[in-house]
Specification:
alpha+beta; nine-stranded mixed sheet; 9 helices
Length: about 375
């Protein structure tokens, strides 16, 4: 292993006072920091996952994860990022290109922001850096808040720890790929491969592909709508190291995802609900947060609440039959998604055995 140093520019916010302005003005400035990123050859890292999507014997896509320490890294999808090029066009880097050469002249503030947004899964905490200033305007009389130090620390941490190079290709920390069942209530469902599971809909381990397709075909009561099948061909599992990959947390993800879908679907009708139902939605919100935080009991705890919605009814007056049916189908889909997800093993932290013979580590699967 070696390290490669890059000069990284990053955008940060400064709030400052200007004459004749009632409130402080927010400016976006551009900072710079040196980042060291670890670089490996393929034979220096452990291959944890190698999935290949084949169609008529030809490779359509390949999904790879390397293990370094206790983290998995997959190729960074660089096609959506670029830097300004002569003529105002974007110079795009295709997946698999050599990022070392691409970034050798320094990372633009926008590339830095995009990489951090990609890694955090959601809106970047960094402001847009396309029009970042090098210095504050001359008429600034007082700086109220300067985020340079905190932003610099974030950039160093995320880029230094969450990214590596493998044979010249930029990789970022990523979960193992999974099978996603993407569901549209009115248009149907279809399977695909979720290379970024955190952003995905309902998930199944590739080791449970048959269960995923069974769920797709059977759905939940009343949800047998048209099935789109863009995932044509076969999924070949060439390598899946259970020890390196670890538990996938399907149940927690599916519970969090479906509870969040339900909260969004029920939201417009809160004004028509009795207090009891609103309190149950508050419980649903707390259970969703627990599942997001990886609580392995959250999915099981949510089932009685969901079954109550299904069995007792929604108690929403003046709701059309079509809208009511759609809400009920959402409840049923949530129940099916959780019921078909395996319980996540509970990890017992190292401790001393009762006989005093040393540390013990165990994985216990709940019944």
């Amino acid at each position: 292993m070696s390290t490669l140093r890059f000069k990284v520019r990053f955008p940060y916010r400064v709030r400052a006072v200007q004459p004749r302005k009632r409130e402080p003005v927010t400016f976006v400035l551009q900072g710079e920091v040196d980042i060291d990123i670890r670089s490996f050859s393929a034979d220096q890292v452990e291959l944890a996952v190698d999935l290949v999507h084949l169609k008529e014997g030809k490779e359509i896509n390949r999904y790879v994860r390397y293990a370094v320490g206790d983290k998995l890294y997959g190729p960074h999808l660089g096609v959506q990022y670029g830097v300004a090029a002569p003529g105002g066009r974007l110079q795009r880097l295709e997946k698999g290109g050599d990022w070392r050469e691409f970034l050798s002249s320094g990372w633009s503030a926008e590339v830095t922001r995009s990489l951090i947004e990609e890694n955090r899964v959601g809106t970047s905490p960094l402001p847009a850096g396309g029009s970042a200033l090098d210095t504050l305007p001359a008429n600034v009389t007082k700086v109220v808040d300067d985020e340079e130090a905190s932003t610099r620390e974030l950039v160093m941490k995320v880029l230094g720890e969450s990214f590596i190079f493998v044979d010249g290709v930029l990789h970022r920390e990523r979960r193992a790929p999974q099978i996603e069942i993407y569901h549209q209530m009115r248009n149907g469902s279809y399977p695909t491969i979720a290379d970024d599971p955190d952003r995905a809909d309902i998930l199944f381990s590739p080791l449970r592909a048959q269960e995923a397709f069974k769920f797709l075909e059977e759905g939940a009561p009343g949800i047998r709508t048209k099935i789109f099948t863009p995932f044509q061909g076969t999924l070949e599992i060439r390598k899946w190291d259970r020890e390196l990959v670890g538990p996938l947390g399907e149940r927690e993800h599916n519970a969090a995802r479906m509870l969040n879908v339900m909260l969004h679907r029920f939201g417009p009708y809160i004004g028509q609900m009795p207090a009891e139902r609103i309190e149950q939605l508050a419980q649903m919100s707390r259970l969703r947060d627990r599942a997001r935080d990886g609580d392995i009991e959250a999915g099981s705890d949510a089932l009685p609440l969901l079954e109550g919605f299904r069995n007792v009814g929604l108690a929403i007056p003046r709701l059309s039959g079509e809208a009511m049916a759609e809400l009920i189908r959402t409840v049923e889909l949530a129940i099916e998604a959780i019921n078909r997800s395996p319980l996540t093993p509970q990890r017992i932290e190292p401790g001393v055995d009762e006989d005093g013979l040393g540390d013990a580590m165990a994985l216990i699967m709940a019944p």
